[in-house]
Batch of 2 targets.
Target 1
Amino acid sequence: MRRQYKVLIVDDDKAIGEVLSEYMHKKGLTAFIETDPRKVLSKVDTILPDIVFLDVRMPHIDGMELLKKLKKEKDIYIVMMTAFATMEHIIKSFREGVDDYLLKPFKLQDLDITLNRALKIIKLQDAYNTLQDEIKTILEEEIITQNNKMLKILEDARRVAPLDVTIIIYGESGTGKDLLARYIHQHSRRKNGPFVPVNLGAIPHELAESELFGHEKGAFTGATEKREGLFKAAEGGTIFLDEIGEASLSLQVKLLRVIETRRILPVGSSKEIPTDVRIIAATNRKLEKEVKEGNFREDLFFRLNTVPFYLPSLIDRKDDIPLLVEYFLKKSSIQHGISEKRISKEALSKLLSYNWPGNIRELKYVIERAVILSKGDVIKEEDIILHPIETKKEEKNIEKIKPLSEIEKEVIKKALKIYRNKKEAAKMLGIDPSTLYRKMKKYGIKEEQ
Ligand SMILES: Nc1ncnc2c1ncn2[C@@H]1O[C@H](COP(=O)(O)OP(=O)(O)OP(=O)(O)O)[C@@H](O)[C@H]1O
Ligand SMILES: [Mg+2]
């Protein structure tokens, strides 16, 4: 979309201002004149011009001084005008950042060239800014919600973020645990420090300790060099221990010690080193149950549970679905360079009546798929393809009802067969790759099946 460009002409000679302004109007630009150089800065603040034509010799403040100020505070395209230019002056102006120079008296032809060049650069800058905004929209992950429970969680999160306490986030897969952990980091005094996510479900138990705390040279076979761990990488920031329920009992002992002493012990070292890292843990398991079953240490559980957050499943915050749909529609259309699509009432009610086992992640992929596959500007009911488990509902025959775990196993096998790689299969199942990995282990599924 073309916007109306604004030009400010600064010249103590009113006649010049008028000639220029008339010319700008003819070119379809909006022009403003200022004859008093002392008023220029405040005028720039109110009209926000794209281009300033600036006379050099004026009473009170000279153009060169104004140029310096304008370039320092705002990034505006500036054309200097003068009848008394010396080479030295011109060079100085360019050093101060002037964009173009116009010698008085000028011919309309000169003005045309100057103006066209300015507009070309401004349009390029506009296009660049739009692209930057779009990239930001794709990369930036916001927490979108209007749900009361969620709003309360965000409020609590902002309150505890600046206190360095250890936090645990509970929630099913895809409910936004990762996002909330980043949100807390962003609202803490550590926000300029690193945020290091670690998925304990994806690191083999025997490597976890050295991954986290580092190791000395020769600490174990294969440790040919000394290595810093992830705690070191998170120094001054936050470490996000995702899937803490997957930590081995021996790692749990060590983590508890880190939380209590704020010191880490690299594998193979006898010297503990201080660590300034905030810990945020997360899990999709019921840790209390794990404690009862002896899989999780009670002392660590209590320690982590000082400040717990419980993220609701999407089914318990359905009022967020329309808002999230809108957000993902926008995001995926930008990401795929497709013009933004709308969603039909029928499609939205299909989304509202689904149970969302993969929560927001699943919703995100369902929308993304619909945006890509739907024809036209409106997403229709048939463009919404839900989880394969849904089709089982149609089988009324009692004999065909199987335990959920068996169905899950089948669906996972099917997804792995179709998509071949685990990441892609997990994406289509609406679960995290590490969740898929865990379930594969649980059901004894091998990748190449
Ligand atoms: N409130 C929200 N607003 C917008 N996007 C969200 C929201 N919650 C989650 N998402 C998006 O959904 C996806 C899943 O979220 P996230 O990775 O935080 O979930 P998780 O709870 O960590 O899942 P898992 O247990 O599988 O790791 C991400 O792409 C995230 O950006
Ligand atoms: Mg996660």
Target 2
Amino acid sequence: MINTHLYNLADPAFIEHCAQQMGNEGVCILPEFLNPQAVQVVRHEADELVPIAFRSSSNATPYLGPANEEFPLGHPRRTLTQGSVEVIAYDQFRANDSLRALYEWDPLLEFIRGCLGLQKLYRYGDPLGALNLAVMRSGDALGWHFDMADFVVSIAIQSSIKGGEFENAKQIRSNDDENYPAVQRVLNDQSPDLVRTEPMTPGTLMLFNGRWSMHRVTAIEGERARYVALLAYDTKPNTDSSETLKMSRYGRLPSTMKSAH
Ligand SMILES: O=C(O)CCC(=O)C(=O)O
């Protein structure tokens, strides 16, 4: 599936280049990471899975919580942004689906570990959230937000006809500076200088640290849905998400009953 003409996942110099990008920019974009045939196969499998996707919508601050009225009107902690998305959960992928095979392939985990400069990296322990296919249709968008996790790996599978851009206010906050004035300007569309569009053409793999970079997906326009695969990892084994998060994103909890068949 991987475009080995362009990328050698075992090449230490390439891994070092990606690690430097992550360190300097908080984002590393690898265009044409999947070869065109693989993109076609994944898109076809996604088309088959989308009828069972779960649709959810959210209305939260960029910090993924409710508005905090202790802050003045217009403050980022008091500003809500909207989102809507459909998701295929990890346990909905079929045994032979290629995205699942890619996610479960150890050399990819090892490559990502190297790019993130980590000693240990594990696939997420969440039976629903470890691998997601996010499907966004006409009118869907994801409002400006920071992620709770340190990093996300996404692979673009299909672009919408218009909109659906991944916009990034790169490293706009840090551990010791929330930088609320700049965050507020971005929320009000007053600082285009701080925002760039990451080129997520189908087949692109993006490593992204969304904890410090505020990002959004602009509204989808047109009939073709936007498909993005989200691969989740953690520095600790067996990390799981809360039941509240599962209920809001997937509308259910994982089944604990194993089928006898
Ligand atoms: O769909 C994308 O490209 C990004 C999704 C995202 O920002 C998120 O799930 O937090």
